[in-house]
Design brief:
Number of domains: 3
Oligomer: single chain
Helix content: 55-70%
Order of helices and strands: HHHHHHHHHHHH
Radius of gyration: 26 Å
Strand content: under 5%
Number of helices: 12
């Protein structure tokens, strides 16, 4: 069985379909109830205690202080408390989308498009329209994901040439690493085998050694490795 390189095995595991689900919001998160808070606020309700009681009846399990902090932000957005120059009917507060961070952009490009919502599709379309070094980095990333997910070993050489000629240091280093393990990487894109189970056993062995460091000899370590505990 050919050995798969660390780089290719990591890419296959990271971009494969078996991925941890996204974190789900819990009833203690105000995000689930912000639509109601904004609606009541724009209707003229400025009583944080009243809003807290209303969303608590809807299932909110967080603290009153969370709601109070959020309503203070809404007051600031509408001019603050005690501002005599503000109109009797201040403009409604609209919840804006959070800005896309570099980490969020990278994760967005890694995900399967069928799992994106409308806002994420819009953000991804904007990313794909970028030019210059940013556009080149996005194109190389999407190209590598495609050849790994679709198992296209015939496209590997073309992608390596593109990465080496890109003048982007991160991609140049990555391409050099893939070339150093070229045969293993090519096998990883061609063959169905994976070193995933072996890596799992190595991780388990390292964990046992760290747990027993300085407190046990090799005989006990052997017993714990052989007999699953």
């Amino acid at each position: 069985m050919p050995f798969l390189s660390e780089q290719c095995d990591y890419a296959l595991n990271f971009t494969g379909s078996a991925r941890q689900p996204r974190r789900q919001l819990s009833p203690t998160s105000l995000d689930l109830f912000k639509a109601h808070v904004l609606e009541r606020w724009n209707e003229g309700c400025r009583n944080a205690s009243q809003i807290f009681r209303e969303i608590k009846a809807k299932g909110f399990q967080g603290q009153y202080a969370t709601v109070a902090r959020y309503t203070r932000r809404l007051r600031v957005a509408q001019g603050g408390v005690g501002n005599t120059d503000r109109p009797d009917h201040p403009p409604p507060v609209v919840e804006t989308a959070k800005p896309l961070t570099p980490r969020g952009a990278a994760w967005l490009m890694m995900r399967h498009e069928e799992g994106l919502d409308d806002e994420e599709r819009r953000q991804l379309a904007q990313l794909n329209e970028q030019e210059g070094e940013m556009g080149q980095a996005i194109s190389l990333t999407r190209g590598f994901l495609e050849l790994v997910r679709q198992r296209q070993p015939e496209e590997l050489d073309t992608w390596l040439e593109r990465a080496a000629a890109s003048c982007l240091s991160a991609f140049e280093r990555f391409a050099r690493g893939l070339r150093d393990d070229y045969e293993a990487v090519k096998a990883g894109l061609t063959l169905p085998w994976s070193t995933g189970p072996v890596e799992g056993q190595i991780n388990r062995l390292k964990m046992l050694k760290r747990q027993m460091y300085g407190r046990a000899n090799i005989d006990l370590l052997k017993q714990r490795v052989v007999v699953r505990t």
